[in-house]
Amino acid sequence: MFQKLAKNPVWFRRFVNVWPPFVGAGISLEQLAEDFSEATVAMKLKFTNTNYVGVHFGGSLYSMCDPFYMLLIMNRIGKDYIVWDKAAEIEFKRPGKGTVRAHFKVDEAMLEDIRTHTENGDRYFPVYEVDILDEQGEVVATVKKTLYIKKK
To answer: 51-60 pLDDT, tens per residue?
Structure first.
């Protein structure tokens, strides 16, 4: 059922914003382009995502970035491709306080790169990076996502 909803950006955004793991962590999908080319995710500092020292819990910082490159690319590249998350890495740079945001962008150059690397049926493992920024625009953490992409 989610895959049908996921094709419509309005329903996709609504679903993500009531998905229990995101609600519990205070994560919201603030903006989603109609063509799934961009998304902005935010997380307010709340009791449910605060660590022992009063800043954003690292697992919640990662969670806010976890599915978005996969989901955006799946919706942009079409049903002729398998797109999965393969690996991830997060580097913490400073304590996260207040509301933090991450902006994801999937442009035509990225899609063309995928098509080129998979045209012969090869598996492709691109790595995409996103910064999580605080309200002052400072980098709180950098997340690197490795995807598994293959033409069906």
So the answer is: 999 999 999 9
